[in-house]
Amino acid sequence: MSVENLLFADLQIGQQYHRQHLVRRSDIDMLGMMAGKRDSEGLVSVPAIGIFLFLTATAINSFPGPGSLIEDHQLQAHGWISEDDILSLTLTVSSKDEARKLVILDAHCENQHGEQLCSGPIHVLAPTTSQRSEYAEAPQFTLRAHHVFANLRAKTDLLPAIPTAVVHPCDRDSLLSAMLAAQEKLIIPILVGPEAKIRAVAAAEGISLLGIRIVGAEHSHNSAQKAVELCRTGEAQALMKGSLHTDEMMSEVMCSATGLRTARRISHVFVMDVPAYERALLVTDAAINIAPGLAAKADITQNAIDLAHILGIACPKVALLSAVETVTDKMPSTMDAALLCKMADRGQIHGAILDGPLAFDNAISMAAAKTKKINSPVAGQADILVVPDIESGNMLAKQMSYFAAADSAGIVLGARVPIVLTSRADDVKTRLASAAVMVLVAHAMR
């Protein structure tokens, strides 16, 4: 796509530029941050002052275009803009100042009902040299609204902190994360590991351990053993991974004699805040179960459903993912999806609406589902994505984090206590979000 500007000399009195703009939800969200918004009978609106941005951007980018500079405007707003409005934007050259190369544009905007929403003059210093902007397609923006974890934190603010065994916090990130979670009143940390190492890290990073309980352990494996024991005796009501390897900690959790297993399969759930998706998205299992069979998938699905209830999703929609939407014996994940749906029909999985097999696009995009003529109560609006195996789940979750700028929190369910299982690559924000989810689960288990 190519946009070439109009020079001051080319502009004539009375010359007009006209375009239309469909108001999308992303427009409402962006303008709402600047001008405020309201909900009226389910309709989201913002004051028409938001049109100022559209009109001035039109002058800079299209008429006169690149090289233009907005000097002043006296725009006035009338009424409200609503999602799906069709705005008609008109700029008319009303006067020119040769000495200053100043052009006054008479701006006008009305909606599809003919209602005037904005009007007034815009003073533009017009370009005097030709410029051209080239791009393959019109640029778009994604507004990152961190509503998912903000809502979770609001819930945790009403709950007391959870005594938490922090396993082997012997590096900066794991120790700092635990202490920040304590500072945020999410946890009461019990640090389990070699005391000299823990104190050395705290001293090097300027972290105060005043009043913090430390349970000494010889090494990382012994740290995991003692932390699990604290949970078995009830001294700790949650477990948080530190700087040891996941397998080392989980081997102690999974031990049939001294671990934290229950009748339910242990599984991992990512709670994801995806900017391009309007609701929280749960992805399971991307960290624990490598190639789960049908019975394991039933528990994995139920664990995620239970978590969704705790997060406030009364009847979550569960998409059982595969590469296709039809059942075929050549692809075992489609068979499992069909059987899980029938198990839900028989009450073996409860508290949610299940459908599958569904491909990823059909699970999260209503447009994709309609294109493929998929009639489903889940398609396009999934709350939970159940993946076929750990490889697909891990890649899906990390792609959403790195390519789609999603925030995530990870939690392990199905054990006697909730477990925060973070990656060494996770930042402090992710670790705190995981701790917030853990707090909600721990209180729900009491």
Explain how this protein is built.
34% of the residues lie in helices and 26% in strands. The chain is α/β, with parallel strands linked by helices and 446 residues long. Strands 2, 5, 6, 8, 9 and 10 form a six-stranded antiparallel sheet that branches. A six-stranded mixed sheet has the order 19-18-20-17-16-21, with helices on both faces. A five-stranded parallel sheet has the order 14-13-12-15-22, with helices on both faces. Helix 3 (147-156) crosses helix 13. The longest helix is centred in the C-terminal third of the chain and has 18 residues, at 428-445. The termini are far apart. The model has no long low-confidence stretch (mean pLDDT 90). Pfam families: PTA_PTB. InterPro entries: HotDog_dom_sf, Phos_Acetyltrans/Butyryltrans, PTA_PTB. This is Bifunctional enoyl-CoA hydratase/phosphate acetyltransferase.
Mean pLDDT: 90
Radius of gyration over all CA atoms, rounded: 28 Å
Q: Uncertain runs with pLDDT below 50, 5 residues or more?
A: none
Oligomer: single chain
* Alpha carbon gap, first and last residue: 59 Å
- Globally, the shape reads elongated
Number of strands: 22
Percent of residues in helices: 25-40%
So how many helices?
Answer: 13
Strand portion: 25-35%
Task: Output the structural class.
Answer: alpha/beta
Largest sheet: 6 strands, antiparallel
Topology:
Blueprint: E1 2-4, E2 16-22, H1 25-35, E3 38-40, E4 43-47, H2 51-61, E5 69-73, E6 76-77, E7 80-82, E8 86-97, E9 102-110, E10 116-125, E11 132-134, H3 147-156, E12 162-167, H4 172-183, E13 187-193, H5 195-205, E14 213-216, H6 220-233, E15 238-241, H7 246-254, E16 267-273, E17 281-284, H8 294-310, E18 317-321, H9 332-345, E19 353-358, H10 360-364, H11 366-371, E20 384-386, H12 390-402, E21 407-413, E22 419-420, H13 428-445
Parallel strand pairs: 12-13, 12-15, 13-14, 15-22, 17-20, 18-19, 18-20
Antiparallel strand pairs: 1-11, 2-8, 3-4, 4-7, 5-10, 6-10, 8-9, 9-10, 16-17, 16-21
